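Saturday, quiet lab. Running sequence design on the structure tokens for the scaffold JK sent over.
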């Protein structure tokens, strides 16, 4: 973490955000981040600072210099010298400080619904015209620069290797955490720090249950279906998601049908994830095989991904956002049986191009049995 970001890239980021601010009639934007995994990245994107504990805000005016604001109790938590922002503020109640700076102005807040603390919102409310600005901020940063794509590809490299490590360690009789521990060790060694959110879905009879869970002390059986959900950000801070299903025995007939739909999804994504397509059209294309077979989709089909784990636009019904080249999407149709007893969930990180979608990992689209090698 803490990679040096060139001034050209900083200017690009601020320029795109300010262009959106001017369009929406904003005087300033407050970007929120906290240590909840996957919610820290917007502050890193806007400042270079990685939140270690507590939370932080970046205040970017339409004109003038930015500020980064911390609660005073976080004075010695995190490497504050890694931010490129000169105005670093430590106060007991950041909301009150922000309110004084934006009083009477129209202010967009990224993280208003999920991230900003209640006490800080209360201080802002009434002092300024506060509007939620999550979708607009995410759209402004959705198209990745070449520098960002280097970071994305490095994260994909790490995550793909993590899957191979999981597969190498996989064996009936081992516990879930015993297998996943080797992945986590590798991720930390490669610079992910604690930017990992790794879970598993496990079920008997060749069919995984649809609930995500933290890897525990359950011992894998020969007939179990295991779906590691591997989600990490490398040293550059860009999140990716890459994973496949594993079953040492025979997948259930329902799981095999889901696998057929996954093969169709991959082919559809290659065609549909192209410049000018809408998120709605992509969703319809990649979900068709699952819907036609009578499966429910229990999680978003896909979503933009960057320095925050889940960003807009989502790949889903009714989202008419037009995709642009160099957008990056995590795609992971969560196919669930009608009775909710079985699922298949596999992840890929895709690049949008003028010619269609490009999966950034090189894992074959299949259910692994644990005997495969690189």
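Result came back. Writing it out in full:
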């Amino acid at each position: 973490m803490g990679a040096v970001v060139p001034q050209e890239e900083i200017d690009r980021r601020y320029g795109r955000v300010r262009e959106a601010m001017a369009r929406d009639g904003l005087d300033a934007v407050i970007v929120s981040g906290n240590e909840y995994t996957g919610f820290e990245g917007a502050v890193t994107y806007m400042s270079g600072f990685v939140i270690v504990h507590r939370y932080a805000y970046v205040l970017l005016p339409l004109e003038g210099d930015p500020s980064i604001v911390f609660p005073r109790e976080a004075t010695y938590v995190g490497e504050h010298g890694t931010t490129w922002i000169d105005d670093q503020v430590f106060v007991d109640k950041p909301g009150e400080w922000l309110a004084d700076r934006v009083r009477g102005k129209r202010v967009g807040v990224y993280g208003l619904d999920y991230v900003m603390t209640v006490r800080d919102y209360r201080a802002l409310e009434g002092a300024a015209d506060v509007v939620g600005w999550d979708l607009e901020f995410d759209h402004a940063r959705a198209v990745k620069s070449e520098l960002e794509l280097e970071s994305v590809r490095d994260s994909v490299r790490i995550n793909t290797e993590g899957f191979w490590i999981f597969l190498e360690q996989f064996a009936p009789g081992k516990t879930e955490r015993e297998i996943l521990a080797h992945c986590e060790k590798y991720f930390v060694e490669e610079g992910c720090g604690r930017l990992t959110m790794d879970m598993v879905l496990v079920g008997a009879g060749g069919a995984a249950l649809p609930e995500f869970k933290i890897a525990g002390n359950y011992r894998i059986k020969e007939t179990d279906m295991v779906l590691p959900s591997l989600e990490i950000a490398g040293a550059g801070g860009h999140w990716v998601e890459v994973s496949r299903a594993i079953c040492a025995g025979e997948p259930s007939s329902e799981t095999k049908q889901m696998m057929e739909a996954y093969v169709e999804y991959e082919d559809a994504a290659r065609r549909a994830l192209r410049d000018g397509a809408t998120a709605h059209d992509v969703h319809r294309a990649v979900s068709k095989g699952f819907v036609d077979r009578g499966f429910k989709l229990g999680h978003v089909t896909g979503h933009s991904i960057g320095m925050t784990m889940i960003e807009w636009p989502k790949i889903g019904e009714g989202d008419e956002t037009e995709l642009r080249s160099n957008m990056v999407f995590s795609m992971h149709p969560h196919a669930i049986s009608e009775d909710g007893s079985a699922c298949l969930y596999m992840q890929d990180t895709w690049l949008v191009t003028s010619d269609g979608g490009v999966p950034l990992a090189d894992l074959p689209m299949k259910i692994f049995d644990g005997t495969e090698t690189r």
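Notes for JK: DSSP finds nine helices and 19 strands in the chain. The mean pLDDT is 96. Ask whether to fix the surface positions before the next round.
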